[in-house]
Amino acid sequence: MRLSILLGVVIALVLASIAYAAFTELLVVRGTVSTGKLDAYFSNVEYDDRCGSASQDINVPLNPVNFYQATTTDRDVGCTEARGVDTDDDGVYEDILVTLVNAYPGYYTSIRSYVLLTSDSIPAKQWRLVIASADGSRVYYKIYENNVSLISDSDGLSVDLDGDGDYDIAIHWSDNLGDLLTPGGPAARFEVKIAVLEGAPEDSTLQFRFHLELIQWNAYKANTPQGSSG
Questions:
Q1: I want to staple 145 with a disulfide (CB 3.0 to 4.6 A). Which of 28, 98, 112, 177 is the partner?
Q2: Residue 129 predicted with pLDDT over 70
């Protein structure tokens, strides 16, 4: 009797384990996340006093520099070249390279373009303007919203291009940091004004580049440093 009861219990436990195994299943949930990208570029780079155009030079007063008092001269001495630079071989221009030829103290020019987002980019805000050497290896300044007065005042921002301790050019830029850009939306106007200072080296071609960095629209404030220069 006891043996039969014991066998019955064993058989019941075996059957229970079989039943438990039969009703146990592993369910796996798989998901796919597709991230967006931020892709901006310069379009239609234009500039004053193009080399070979035989246009008359424009000058600004120095000591102090005043970009609001530019006047046309009766001479054609210096000239300007500017072009977009595709830094990552994606077919659009991320930088603008500027070349001043035969320039002199008081010489003035301006560079104009538009900033756009590609059609597959996420929305973005204009974050900072980077002023760098022609090859991009040396950054002179990084201009953010909280230090934009360095470059937006009437005398602009003085820059030493060759590292000799003397300022070679002054740059004036109308602030549009923080402006929102949307894919397929209107372009943002980009314009910088440039004056050659008395510290510029003689018999030299001056070259430098601009790079306007954007950041995703909802991270703009959180990523604005408190420093004043690069």
A1: 177
A2: yes
**Phi and psi based region of residue 61 (left: phi greater than 0; alpha: psi -120 to 50; beta: remaining):** beta
Q: How far apart are CA 177 and CA 128, in angstroms?
A: 7
pLDDT-derived band of residue 119, with 50, 70 and 90 as boundaries?
Answer: confident
The H-or-E segment that residue 41 falls in is strand 40-47
d(CA 130, CA 47): 19
Helix/strand/coil for 90 = coil
Q: Cα 27 from chain centroid?
A: 46
Rg (CA), the chain: 31
Q: Record the pTM.
A: 0.81
Q: If you write DSSP's letter for every residue of 139-198 in order, what string do you get?
A: EEEEE-GGGTHHHHSTT-EEE-SSSSSS--EEEEE---TT-EE-TTSPPEEEEEEEEE-T
